[in-house]
Amino acid sequence: MDEQNPSAPPCAQPRIPRGITHINVRHTTRFTVIGNHLAQHRELSGLAIGLAVHIQSLPAGARADIKTLAARFPEGETRIAAALRELEAHGYLARTRERLPSGRVVTHTVSYNQPRGVDAQKPGPRPTSRPTPTSGHTPTSRLTPQPKPVPVPVPAPAIEADPAPVRPDVKVPPPPAADPRPRNPLPEPHTYDSASHRTATTLLASLHRDDPRLLLAERDVSRLAPAVTAWLERGAAPEAVRRTLTASLPEDPLRHPAGFLAHRLAELLPPPLPAAPAAVRAVRPLPLQNCDGCDRAFRAPEPGRCRGCRSDLLEVA
Predict the structure, then answer these.
(1) CB neighbours (10 Å) of residue 290?
(2) CB 37 within 8 A of CB 115
(3) Dist CA 46 CA 52 (whole Å)
(4) Helix 218-233 vs helix 238-246: angle between axes, to the nearest 10 degrees?
(5) What's the rounded Cα separation, in Å, for the pair 184 and 177?
(6) pTM higher than 0.70 for the full model?
(7) pLDDT value at 215 more than 70
(8) Which segments of the chain are extended strands (E)?
(9) CA-to-CA distance for 314 and 303, rounded, in angstroms?
């Protein structure tokens, strides 16, 4: 009873899965087939792969321009434009501008589920080891020929009409180049004034009362306060600075209110006040005196005789 049986099998250890575990549910409606050459592309960024999947899932005729995609996703227009250029470079997207017979300029966007003109980036290598078939069993892949892949029809190109029609006899100007002018830095006050600095800080912190989109963070208020102080140093009233910063705000959402205010503070800086002219000392006329001889009024620094009654002038004459 006390002896142990060394031939007893050990307890089975729980198996811990490694890597990814897929739980797949078969789709029957509203799905898009994406190749691994796109989903596992080694040169495309994650944003480019995601935009390619989204564009391929859109119906024919849907808009896929930069502004529409920027309104759909949290990324800005700059990142989305760069991702679309990646897809064009690798053959997943083509965009061309053409003129219709009516004179309208349109942009044709074509999405390819197979890269065009560029070798697709292949996924990682597959394992070369295959299970060895048992005796008397022949794999079905050797008996039954594999069906040929069915080509997927390419959807019709989406037409994105420009908002304004263009006459046929007018050439379309090229897109405007980037502004070569360097941006002006934020102005700095020449002297530090604690009272003006407090006024500038209060003005910036209360701008959201005029427009809720101008709610600034504390670090942005500290960064922009010296620029507002420079405006106050140049003779601008606080209310005038407030009107300049909040006038004619764009209707689009302000994604960076601090950058918008910094641009206005740098570009609309008023000129310094001109130097005050030196005060001109007024020359006062001599007071009026009554002549002691003829009682006629005349101007002289002290009382006495007028020019006609003075004996010394008469002798000289």
Answers:
(1) 13
(2) yes
(3) 10
(4) 120
(5) 19
(6) no
(7) yes
(8) 93-99, 105-111, 158-161, 288-290, 297-299
(9) 19
Cα separation, 17 vs 13, whole angstroms: 13
Q: What are the backbone dihedrals phi and psi of residue 172, each rounded to the nearest 5 degrees, phi first?
A: -75, 120
Separation between Cα atoms, residue 246 and residue 267, nearest integer Å: 14
Longest dimension (CA), the chain: 168
Q: What is the pLDDT of residues 73-83, one digit of tens each?
A: 999 999 999 99
Backbone angles phi, psi at 300, to 5 degrees: -160, 155
Which residue blocks in 173-256 are alpha helix, DSSP H?
A: 194-205, 218-233, 238-246
- Band of pLDDT at residue 85, cut at 50, 70 and 90: very high
β-bridge partners, 277: none
Contacts of 263 (CB under 8 A, 6+ apart): 183
Q: Is the CB of residue 230 less than 8 Å from the CB of residue 187? A: yes
Cross-strand pairs, 288:
299
Contacts of 113 (CB under 8 A, 6+ apart): 33, 34, 35, 38, 56, 152
Digit-coded pLDDT (tens) for 102-152: 878 777 788 998 887 654 444 445 444 454 444 444 444 444 555 566 565
Q: Say which residues have a Cβ less than 8 Å from residue 227's Cβ, sequence separation at least 6.
A: 186, 187, 188, 262, 265, 266
Could you give all domains of the chain from N- to C-terminal order, each with its CATH number?
30-124+154-170 (1.10.10), 194-248+256-267 (no CATH)
Rounded to whole angstroms, the Cα distance separating 262 from 247 reads 14
260 vs 244: CA distance, rounded Å: 12
